[in-house]
Specification:
10 helices, nine-stranded mixed β-sheet, 34% helix, alpha/beta, globular, four-stranded mixed β-sheet
């Protein structure tokens, strides 16, 4: 079996329509190309990790409705364990309403719906799955206290814990000592420190400040530049950069979730943090070559072929 990965998850269905331009207040426009796509960071992470060969368990809440059933069907098709998924009649499954124009701009309204009901009681009910994992991965589309509790249960059992702090919130008043690895992008790293998203402080200094909050390592995604791994060594912050994996970018949507899933999969297989981050950078790069999230996620053999070609190219 591959890495036993438990995801503290979120799911939302994306309902997308294209228009010539974004409507103004009170205006009705005719759109086209309506489509429904799978969304939610937890869902994306679960699919990508499963396709990389991880043994994935998803914990979370969806509504007892057609969208929730569609998510369950997706998890079954991808081989993801949903024992820890609660189905509720209290709120609907999360949805995102997205209007895209032909110039590439969009407006999005998200109702996280049943994700808001994912509670510390749900975590307690699934404690055995959390403690039995190799790695537990959380993100912030669910209540903060829930994800922190889930990671605390994992950490207490000696399980590796990873938090992707997105959507970003200020975490400066939060004890992050139950988190082994925090995985922000450059913008999120600043926001979680209460800074402006464009704050000019260097990434090394940003990572050093994050490490004072209690986590043991920071893996910062750097877009087309790969990722930076920041760890304390003899009291000094040491930065290790992964190589970039150049691709022709079609759609970067979901690349962060792909990175986190791949990182956790590789860590559970015993790779060191820098090697795992390099594998994750390649996996995330490859997903940018296709549209949407779930349809863009590649399997293990495809990632390995891509990495081998990249190495051979570098050798020449």
């Amino acid at each position: 079996m591959g890495t036993k990965l438990t995801i503290l998850g979120s799911y939302a269905k994306a309902l997308v329509v294209t228009t010539d331009r974004i409507p103004v207040t009170g205006e009705t426009l005719l759109g086209r190309d309506y489509r429904e796509t799978y969304g939610g960071k937890g869902s994306d992470m679960a699919v990508q990790a499963a396709r990389l060969g991880a043994d994935v368990s998803f914990l979370g809440v969806v509504g007892r409705d057609t969208l929730g059933q569609g998510f369950i069907d997706l998890m079954v098709a991808e081989g993801v364990d949903t024992q820890g998924l609660r189905v509720t009649e209290e709120l609907s499954t999360g949805v995102g309403l997205i209007i895209k124009d032909v110039a590439g701009s969009n407006i999005i309204v998200v109702d996280m719906g049943a994700n808001r009901l994912f509670s510390t009681e749900d975590v307690a009910r699934s404690a055995a799955q959390i403690r039995g994992a190799d790695v537990v991965l959380g993100q912030l589309e669910i209540p903060l206290e829930t994800v922190l509790q889930g990671l605390a249960v994992a950490h207490g059992a000696g399980v590796r814990t990873v938090l992707n702090p997105a959507p970003a919130v200020d975490l400066t008043q939060v004890d992050l000592s139950d988190i082994d690895i925090l995985t922000p992008n450059e913008t999120e790293a600043r926001v979680l420190l209460g800074l402006a998203p464009t704050d000019p402080t260097s990434n090394v200094d940003i990572a050093a400040r994050i490490l004072t909050l209690g986590c043991r390592a920071v893996v910062m995604t750097l877009g087309e530049r790969g990722a930076g791994v920041f760890q304390l060594v003899d009291g000094q912050v040491v930065e290790t950069l992964t190589g970039a994996w150049p691709v022709d970018v079609v759609d970067s949507n979901g690349a962060g979730d792909s990175f986190n899933a791949a990182l956790c999969t590789a860590l559970g297989e015993g790779r060191d943090l820098a090697d795992a981050a390099n594998f994750a950078s390649a996996t995330a790069g490859l997903c940018c070559t296709k549209w949407e999230t779930v349809p863009s996620y590649h399997d293990r053999s495809q990632v390995e072929v891509f990495m081998k070609k990249g190495r051979n190219h570098d050798a020449h």
